[in-house]
Amino acid sequence: xxxxxxxxxxxxxxxxxxxxxxxxxxxxxxxxxxxxxxxxxxxxxxxxxxxxxxxxxxxxxxxxxxxxxxxxxxxxxxxxxxxxxxxxxxxxxxxxxxxxxxxxxxxxxxxxxxxxxxxxxxxxxxxxxxxxxxxxxxxxxxxxxxxxxxxxxxxxxxxxxxxxxxxxxxxxxxxxxxxxxxxxxxxxxxxxxxxxxxxxxxxxxxxxxxxxxxxxxxxxxxxxxxxxxxxxxxxxxxxxxxxxxxxxxxxxxxxxxxxxxxxxxxxxxxxxxxxxxxxxxxxxxxxxxxxxxxxxxxxxxxxxxxxxxxxxxxxxxxxxxxxxxxxxxxxxxxxxxxxxxxxxxxxxxxxxxxxxxx
Length: 358
Ligand code: FES
Ligand SMILES: [Fe+2]
Description:
Blueprint: E1 17-22, E2 32-36, E3 39-45, E4 51-55, E5 69-71, E6 74-76, E7 83-84, E8 90-92, E9 110-113, E10 116-120, E11 147-152, H1 156-164, H2 167-172, H3 174-178, H4 182-186, E12 189-195, E13 198-208, H5 212-215, E14 225-234, E15 238-247, E16 259-271, E17 274-283, H6 290-319, H7 333-352
Antiparallel strand pairs: 1-10, 2-3, 3-4, 5-6, 6-7, 7-8, 9-10, 11-17, 12-13, 13-14, 14-15, 15-16, 16-17
Bound molecules: FE2/S2 (inorganic) cluster and fe (ii) ion (FE2).
């Protein structure tokens, strides 16, 4: 059933896959109430193992289905007992034979890939699982990491901005992920490639101290390193980064003497001004030592709380003055391209089906 809602057509891209949850959030029959693109949803794993995502609002009197009871792959509203199948059809009304056609809830396509649960908020007929931007290292045995989640009281676009410009590492994360303010002055991007679905950036920082998060997990803590980051920002808000640390001056393109990380981050709008932020920071050395993954996850939490502090404060201030226009520096070429591309895709989507909001 279409659930019409006006006023948000211009904000979100709908016909694409978003990360809705880590699979561990739905373990053991847990019902997860989560708002995505300003829709309250209930997510759960049915007893067959199938993932189910339904509009959370019972069509009878509007009670949350997230307070309901899972029965097989169905859910029963625990107010007056109506039961809905995985497709959102009402299949039982206690004390009533006739089931009116209006008693349905919207069912959202869901897919699991490498521990991430993906959801399609747009037209279900267009939900092609091949469009999921799967991140292979999450499923590869040579990479280890721990999944993370943070809730932001800020627009996902401000987090995209943050991740798009590495100069913030120098100032926001001097003592955690960055390592020094010098990073902002000396580590210029060597490549920024504009892509149809986002952008790619490559950045070197040579002959520098290892940043604290890396230092904590390596034996030779004082050796100078060359650091290379290659990052991809992908519409509607996904970030993938390869980080390599090589001994300073080694010019080691074979990467044999390097330490490497693989990092994925997903910004899923909860509302226009709040965001679900999922990530995993993976490493491939000493993978049998669980303390490395724990140390990296703790370091990343530390760093992301620094981002969260400044971004949420930025959102509060931006909310006080709708007239203020964000300005750009040369380093903002990637994020500017991202915002323009996203805006164009949203306009194209709205032109194709202007009134359809699921
Ligand atoms: S509100 Fe759900 S059955 Fe009445
Ligand atoms: Fe950051």
